[in-house]
Task: inverse folding
């Protein structure tokens, strides 16, 4: 741990360096995120401004959302990262497992200012995103009208890409099998419900290409490996806006979720990590991400700061909630996630 | 760049036996042959740094990994009192209240010790559904106040179900066969016998079979493609042969990753392979070659072809043309001469090439991960998945154990039949 | 030798078919590795022939962006470190093994070769779990150590092969003339086996430079190497930059291995000239 004095010295030195146009190196904050357009957006919205403002050097890591690396680090006491972006279910799992630090919200922002479910014990929300369906209208002549069209191989023959993970897929399977959105988690909580969901997935299993990194869906659509794909809305919007792809997003039956960020136990610079969390949780900063990727803020008071042109593209824009939608049940996945992942992997392997 | 490359031996294979290299200095040193302890020690000292480094960087890590397959003290560590209380239990029915009380005490302490989660997870592997029951009971015990812990335990039906206690008792033994059995889709039933796991949990036999199938298919494909080419190279004049051998070596010298990258480009829906198939009229629509078994086999065949071909070639080029001429002059038809004179001699080379390719295919990871679909993942991919995603290192260790035993057994066969000398660099 | 002395028509057809088949096999071998080369000079963002135009923009990405530069730097650090250690220790070991007084050669040799046989995922997972415990995970030292295990067999084998032609009487002569062992190693033995040592070093370099599985487990962002960058790119965003990186890696491997093989041949040919 550095003393305040050396810290001040370092800051002074950093300012001096900056003044003569060199990269500032004072403290290092190591952040592990899951790559692609999302990480690029975080870099522009948060990493770089934070770095400039505080003289902190941000070291970026990339991973595929696997907690294994973090677990190995924590168990062996060698934790080279200070912050890690994770999904909500992973936050709960990591919290139980003692891999993630319990957060002290007094150092971040008032907890009640976050959208319900986006401020958890071991993870704080970064953004709100939608699990949606994307397709290329130049390939698919008839436009799908709901995410559930995934299961309609008659009307939409060809390969479809889905995430290699049980969450969302099981929910969609049940909804496609006639379960009302409001009852999805109740049904999925029973063994019969789980069987039912897998049975529904069985019907399209041979037509599915599985993706596991968030950048893959756009890639799979672009190379026409698949005719439609589930995706995180921001990645597809990014392909439309930046790469000028002709893709279209189907919002009906989307599932809304929150991205999280957490501090692994034993992180070397927890103070700096908190400083970063406090920085990105300020409403105006929280809203900034939307300008670089179309994910909504998690602070209830941040909406007014979102850039006007980004607003209608967000997953929680009124237009996009006009049809059916489901808010992912974090607690459900915290309780059942591990068993369902296991069952899902066994199902995949068979 | 991986790995093994059979030598181009200048002498007939097998003729000089396995210890040919041993013999090399014999004549020179015969004069000075005295059992010289100092010399032995010095030569050992020269090799020692590498041996020590290999032991530390390679040997110990693998032994420790494999030990996880049979040694899992998670439950015993989390439940010390229960372990003791159960030491005298006969395994029939339910244990006495003392065991319940011990478990309650252990569970209560587990939250503070931070072992609750690991315990729940480990028990859940043996007893599906145990995870939430353990965590629930721990919470209830925390919140119980003055209610006696024993009552809390009795109020959760899970702890009085048949099967619960045998699983706990079994788990308190740190040395376990559980993971190795699971890796073969087997488990102990309540009567102490062995049974198959239910079909929805059975994964691994299928994955091992799949790995074998892919390895066999690739081996066969490389043989069909490689044998005629090896024959041609061994038969044409030297200059031409040199050019042809370069065509084999260039891909051989390119890393697996780079070649896999090339194939991901080629096998795309709008990639060159599909273009070619359409143009030839073989296919009428573009095929899905990426994320498919056939795409995987094609790419692996490309990567493994030199491994199969080179040993065959190195044997073929030692066969004297005069033997075939002799066969012809004795009136043998070309086909007969080929079959009766040529084939038996190249057989060791064919064995070496095929075994090598088969062994290497068993451990493939990069290519299935990038080109295979979900149902084309091989055993190595499952090992990586258990480490990274499921966080079940014991299971990864058990699968590693079985894969390693299979690989070493096949390699033992290789060394026994063909000799280690065949494994050299070009 | 392809044809029998009095070839029949059927035989001629068979030989023609053999040539045809082999031609196709050679195309199968060569075309895939050449494909990335033209694509890497494509000016467009797609992998589709015909090329949109020729440009070096993807090489500018690989050689000019900080991310790839760091990866190339890391690859070089790890590969040079591995080469240094593997070559030094591997050469010593090969010398020890070439001495027929070496005890337990038959046990030691398979052990030395075992890193080539053990599936690399097992090596990677094993070192990942163990190195983390001893503080070597996410360090250059850890990756170099693991790569040394994978690369040293190549050095032992190539140097060993060049030693089979080395006449130990030369060392005895040097000793009788009063040279210390170290002196006679550097003045007598090393110059003679140098091609073998260099060849082993080149193999070691390429082994490390191309390796991705161990790196995937052991490296953190600070040690990301070129192959790892490629692997991530292949999974996530197939950009032509990958083909440029692939072309560079392929070029380097091929050049080094051609040199290695020429050296290895030279070192092995001399003693066997009369055989």
Result:
């Amino acid at each position: 741990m550095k003393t305040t004095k050396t810290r001040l010295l370092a800051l002074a030195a950093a300012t001096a360096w900056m003044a003569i146009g060199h990269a500032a190196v004072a403290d290092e904050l190591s952040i592990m995120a899951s790559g692609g357009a999302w990480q690029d957006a975080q870099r522009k919205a948060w990493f770089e401004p934070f770095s400039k403002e505080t003289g902190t050097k941000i070291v970026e890591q990339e991973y595929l959302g696997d907690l294994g690396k973090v677990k190995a680090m924590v168990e062996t006491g060698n934790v080279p990262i200070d912050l890690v972006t994770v999904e909500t279910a992973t936050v709960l799992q990591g919290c139980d497992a003692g891999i993630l630090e319990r957060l002290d919200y007094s150092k971040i922002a008032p907890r009640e200012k976050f959208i319900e479910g986006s401020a958890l014990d071991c993870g704080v929300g970064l953004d709100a995103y939608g699990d949606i369906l994307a397709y290329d209208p130049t390939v698919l002549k008839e436009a799908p009208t709901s995410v559930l069209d995934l299961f309609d191989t008659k009307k939409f023959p060809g390969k479809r890409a889905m995430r290699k993970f049980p969450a969302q897929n099981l929910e969609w399977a049940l909804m496609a099998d006639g379960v009302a959105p409001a009852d999805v988690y109740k049904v999925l909580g029973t063994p019969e419900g789980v069987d039912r969901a897998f049975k529904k997935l069985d019907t399209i299993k041979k037509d599915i290409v599985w993706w596991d990194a968030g950048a893959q869906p756009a890639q799979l659509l672009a190379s026409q490996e698949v005719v439609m794909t589930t995706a995180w809305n921001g990645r597809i919007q990014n392909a439309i806006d930046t790469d000028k792809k002709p893709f279209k997003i189907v919002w009906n039956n989307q599932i809304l979720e929150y991205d999280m960020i957490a501090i692994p136990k034993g992180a070397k610079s927890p103070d700096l990590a908190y400083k970063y969390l406090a920085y990105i949780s300020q409403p105006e900063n929280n809203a900034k991400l939307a300008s670089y990727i179309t994910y909504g803020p998690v602070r209830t008071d941040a909406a007014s700061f979102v850039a006007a042109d980004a607003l209608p593209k967000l997953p929680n824009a009124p237009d996009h909630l006009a049809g059916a939608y489901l808010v992912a049940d974090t607690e459900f996945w915290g309780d059942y996630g591990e068993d369902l992942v296991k069952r899902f992997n066994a199902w995949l392997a068979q | 760049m991986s790995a093994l490359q059979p030598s181009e031996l200048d002498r007939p294979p097998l003729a000089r036996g396995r210890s040919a290299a041993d013999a090399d200095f014999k004549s020179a040193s015969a004069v000075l042959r005295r059992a010289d302890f100092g010399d032995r020690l010095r030569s050992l000292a020269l090799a020692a740094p590498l041996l020590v480094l290999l032991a530390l960087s390679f040997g110990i890590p693998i032994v420790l990994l494999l030990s996880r397959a049979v040694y899992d003290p998670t439950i015993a560590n989390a439940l010390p009192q229960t372990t003791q209380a159960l030491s005298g239990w006969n395994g029939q029915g339910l244990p006495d209240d003392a065991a319940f009380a011990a478990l309650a005490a252990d569970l209560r302490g587990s939250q503070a010790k931070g072992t609750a989660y690991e315990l729940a997870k480990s028990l859940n592997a043996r007893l599906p559904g145990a995870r939430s029951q353990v965590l629930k009971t721990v919470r209830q015990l925390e919140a119980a106040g003055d209610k006696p812990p024993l009552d809390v335990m009795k109020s959760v039906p899970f702890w009085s179900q048949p099967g619960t206690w045998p699983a706990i008792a079994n788990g308190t033994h740190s040395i376990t066969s559980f993971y190795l059995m699971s890796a073969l889709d087997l488990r102990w039933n309540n009567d102490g016998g062995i049974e198959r796991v239910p079909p929805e949990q059975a994964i691994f036999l299928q994955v091992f079979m799949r790995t074998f199938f892919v390895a066999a298919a690739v081996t066969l494909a490389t043989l069909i493609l490689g044998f005629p080419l090896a024959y041609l190279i061994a038969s044409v004049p030297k200059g031409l042969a040199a050019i042809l051998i370069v065509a084999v070596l260039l891909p051989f010298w390119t890393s697996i990753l780079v070649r896999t990258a090339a194939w991901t480009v080629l096998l795309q829906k709008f990639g060159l392979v599909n273009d070619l198939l359409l143009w030839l009229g073989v296919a009428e629509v573009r095929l899905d070659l990426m994320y498919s078994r056939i795409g995987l086999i094609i790419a692996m065949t490309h990567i493994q072809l030199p491994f199969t071909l080179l040993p065959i070639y190195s044997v073929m080029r030692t066969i004297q043309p005069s033997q075939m001429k002799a066969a012809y002059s004795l009136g043998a038809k070309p086909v007969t001469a080929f079959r009766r004179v040529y084939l038996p001699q190249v057989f060791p080379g064919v064995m070496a090439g095929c075994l090598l390719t088969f062994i290497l295919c068993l451990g493939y990871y990069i290519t299935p991960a990038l080109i295979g679909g979900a149902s084309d993942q091989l055993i190595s991919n499952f090992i990586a998945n258990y480490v990274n995603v499921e966080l079940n290192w014991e299971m990864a260790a058990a699968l590693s154990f079985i894969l390693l035993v299979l690989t070493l057994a096949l390699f033992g066969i290789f060394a026994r039949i063909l000799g280690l000398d065949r494994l050299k660099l070009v | 030798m392809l044809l029998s002395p009095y070839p029949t028509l059927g035989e001629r057809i068979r030989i023609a078919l053999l040539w045809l088949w082999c031609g196709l096999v050679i195309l199968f071998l060569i075309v895939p590795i050449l494909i990335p080369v033209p694509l890497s000079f494509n000016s467009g963002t797609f992998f589709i022939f015909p090329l949109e135009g020729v440009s070096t923009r993807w090489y500018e990405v690989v050689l000019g962006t900080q991310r790839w530069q760091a990866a190339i730097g890391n690859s070089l650090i790890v590969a040079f470190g591995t080469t240094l250690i593997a070559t030094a220790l591997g050469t010593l070991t090969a010398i020890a093994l070439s001495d027929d007084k070496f005890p337990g050669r038959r046990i030691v040799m398979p052990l030395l070769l075992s890193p080539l046989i053990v599936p690399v995922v097992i090596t990677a997972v094993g070192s990942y779990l163990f190195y983390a415990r001893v503080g070597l995970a996410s360090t250059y030292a850890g990756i170099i150590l693991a790569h040394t295990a994978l690369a040293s067999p190549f050095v032992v084998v190539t140097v060993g092969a060049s030693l089979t032609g080395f006449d130990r009487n030369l060392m005895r002569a040097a000793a009788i003339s009063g040279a210390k062992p170290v002196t006679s190693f550097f003045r007598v033995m090393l110059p003679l086996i140098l091609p073998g040592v260099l060849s082993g070093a080149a193999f070691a370099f390429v082994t490390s430079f191309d390796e991705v599985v161990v790196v995937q487990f052991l490296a953190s962002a600070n040690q990301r190497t070129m192959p790892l960058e490629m692997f991530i790119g292949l999974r996530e965003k197939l950009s032509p930059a990958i083909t440029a990186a692939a072309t560079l890696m392929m070029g380097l491997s091929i050049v080094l291995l051609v040199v290695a093989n020429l050296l290895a041949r030279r070192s092995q040919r001399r003693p066997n000239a009369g055989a």
